[in-house]
Write a structure and sequence with these properties.
- It is a single chain.
- The protein has 108 residues and is mostly helical.
- It has one domain (7-83).
- It has four helices and no strands.
- α1 runs parallel beside α3 (47-77).
- It is elongated and about 70 Å long.
- The chain starts with 6 loop residues before the first helix and ends in a 13-residue tail after the last helix.
- 5% of the residues are buried.
- Pfam families: Complex1_LYR_2.
Length: 108
């Protein structure tokens, strides 16, 4: 009893999402890819488990896509997210038309 014909397509879908969500372009985390590959290769059970594999693979692809879209939206609508606290305060002040006063650092 082999895997259904659509399983390689599911694997490619999940792998594509892993590649898109990786920190460095076109080089996804090899451990994550290996884990997904192992899961898909080991799935060779009864038809009921094929339905579980289909569902789990689709859920994983949707989760990865949602995470990627969430990150894009967060960067678009909250551009101060990656700044330090001091830089965030300065940027917020500039947004309302103010400049932060220059602080003099004392030399001890």
């Amino acid at each position: 009893m082999g895997l259904p014909k659509h399983v390689p397509g599911l694997y490619r879908t999940v792998l594509r999402e892993v590649k898109k969500t990786s920190m460095t372009p076109k080089t996804p985390n090899k451990d994550i890819v290996a884990s997904f590959r192992t899961l898909f290769e080991r799935y060779n059970g009864p038809k009921e488990s094929h339905a579980a594999l289909d569902r789990d693979a689709q859920v994983a692809a949707i989760f990865l896509r949602s995470q990627r879209e969430h990150k894009v939206l967060l960067e678009r609508y909250n551009p101060l997210i990656d700044l330090s606290a001091e830089d965030r305060i300065k940027a917020t002040a500039r947004r309302v038309g103010l400049d932060m006063p220059v602080t003099v650092k004392s030399e001890s």
